From TrEMBL:
PANTHER family found in the cross-reference section: FGF RECEPTOR ACTIVATING PROTEIN 1, POST-GPI ATTACHMENT TO PROTEINS FACTOR 2-LIKE
An example Gene Ontology CC term for this record: endoplasmic reticulum membrane
Domain CWH43-like N-terminal: 45-276
UniProt entry keywords in alphabetical sequence: Membrane, Transmembrane, Transmembrane helix
Stretches that traverse the bilayer: 43-64, 100-122, 143-161, 167-191, 212-235, 255-273
Native source organism of the sequence: Panagrolaimus davidi
Xref: Pfam families: Frag1
Protein name: Post-GPI attachment to proteins factor 2
GO biological process: GPI anchor biosynthetic process
Length: 294
C-alpha cells in the first residue's frame, strides 16, 4: 500500500521476489500495477467533510421537522432544566429518523477515516527538516498515529451507545473522541512544522497557520464542555430550586459541541490542499500460487 502522486511512471507488470515460507525459499510474483486506487480527495470528502455535514443535517432536521422536541426538551439528569440547544447526542443517537441517518453516515465515514494515519505519516516524510532525525520526532509521530485511531473509536462508541441507555459508556466515548481530537490537532500542528512540510510550499504554510488557529480556539472550547456540563450537573443536583439560573450552562455545552463538530471536519479536510493531487495505491500479494508451483 503506497501513496503516490499523479506524476509516477506506469508500473511494470510483475516483479519476482524470493521469500521464505516454512523454511523454504519460494518465488513470489508481486503485481506492481495497483489493484485499486483511492484518491486523497475522496478520502477528504468521505473521511472529513461527510461526518460534519451529516451531523449538521441531523441537527437541522430536528429544528425543522421536530421543533416540538426542542421546545419540550429536558435533560434526563435535570428534568426541570430546559435548553433551546439539545446536545448533539440526542440528534444523532436517540431521536429518529436522525439516528438511522447518522448511522448510515458513520458506516460510509469510518473506512476512509482509517487511512488518514497512513496519509499523515507519508506527508511528514516529504519534509526535509533535520528535526526528523531527532529522538523525540518518531515518538510524537507514533503518538499521533495512535490518537488518529482512538478518535474514530470514540466516535463509534458515541454513535452506537446512546446517552439514554448507557450514559457513562456514552460519556466515555465522547471524552475519548474529544480528547483524541485535541491531541491530534496539537501533534499534527507540531509535526507539520518540525517535519519541514510547512516549508515545501506557501499553501502548506497557510494550512499550518489555519491548523494552529483551530487548535488555539478549539482547545478552550473543548475544555469549556467539561466546565459547563459539570456546572449544570452539580448545581442542578444540589440546588434544584435554581435550575433555571443554570440553563445557560447546559446550552453553552451544546453550542460548544456544535462548534467542535465543524472544527473536526474542517481540520482534517485541510489535507485536500496539502495532498489533494495524491492517491493511495492498493496492491494485494498472494504466495499460494508460488507455493503450488514450488
Amino acid at each position: 500500500m503506497t501513496i503516490s502522486d499523479n506524476t509516477v511512471q506506469p508500473y511494470p507488470s510483475t516483479i519476482p521476489v524470493a521469500i521464505t515460507f516454512d523454511d523454504k525459499k519460494v518465488p513470489e510474483i508481486i503485481p506492481q500495477k495497483p489493484e485499486g486506487r483511492i484518491r486523497i480527495r475522496t478520502l477528504c470528502f468521505l473521511g472529513a467533510l461527510l461526518p460534519g455535514l451529516g451531523c449538521y443535517f441531523c441537527i437541522a432536521y430536528t429544528y425543522l421537522f421536530q421543533f416540538d422536541r426542542v421546545l419540550n426538551f429536558t435533560s434526563s439528569h435535570c428534568p426541570n432544566v430546559k435548553s433551546p440547544f439539545p446536545p448533539v447526542s440526542y440528534s444523532i443517537g436517540v431521536w429518529e429518523p436522525q439516528k438511522f441517518i447518522w448511522l448510515l453516515v458513520l458506516c460510509v465515514h469510518i473506512p476512509p477515516r482509517l487511512f488518514f494515519a497512513m496519509v499523515y505519516k507519508c506527508q511528514y516524510r516529504l519534509g526535509r527538516s533535520i528535526h526528523q532525525k531527532e529522538e523525540w520526532f518518531p515518538g510524537v509521530a507514533r503518538a499521533h498515529m495512535r490518537f488518529l485511531f482512538l478518535e474514530p473509536l470514540g466516535l463509534i462508541i458515541v454513535s452506537v451507545v446512546d446517552i439514554d441507555s448507557h450514559f457513562f459508556i456514552h460519556s466515555f466515548g465522547y471524552a475519548l473522541w474529544l480528547i483524541s481530537f485535541n491531541f491530534n490537532m496539537l501533534l499534527n500542528t507540531i509535526l507539520h512544522h518540525y517535519s519541514g512540510f510547512r516549508d515545501l510550499h506557501d499553501y502548506h504554510d497557510t494550512t499550518f497557520q489555519l491548523k494552529r488557529l483551530m487548535f488555539i480556539i478549539g482547545c478552550p472550547v473543548s475544555i469549556s464542555t467539561a466546565v459547563t456540563y459539570l456546572t449544570y450537573a452539580v448545581y442542578c443536583f444540589n440546588f434544584s430550586d435554581f435550575t433555571e439560573d443554570f440553563c445557560n450552562s447546559y446550552a453553552a455545552f451544546s453550542i460548544a459541541e456544535y462548534i467542535m463538530v465543524g472544527f473536526n471536519s474542517a481540520f482534517y479536510f485541510l489535507i485536500i490542499w496539502e495532498m489533494g493531487e495524491s492517491h493511495i495505491d492498493l496492491t494485494v500479494g498472494n504466495i499460494k500460487p508460488a507455493l503450488m508451483d514450488a
